[in-house]
Protein: DUF397 domain-containing protein
Amino acid sequence: MADVPPNLDWVRAAPEDAVGPGPWIEIAFGEDDAVYIRETSDPDNVVTTTQKKWDAFVLGVQAGEFDHFVEGVEDVTP
Structure:
């Protein structure tokens, strides 16, 4: 695992009205084009990617390219 800078500004990817500890995904943007991703329930386990790959992923989600992963999953409120 890559070294994670200690001064990252983590942003929780959750609805604004969400309460409780999650689990939620958190994203932080670092230097040198690095994007860090972690889950609130396991903050020491951090995945690193590049800004270009992150942007491609976000555009793919917006375009519905990953919808097949959630087919048949019912909307569950935590």
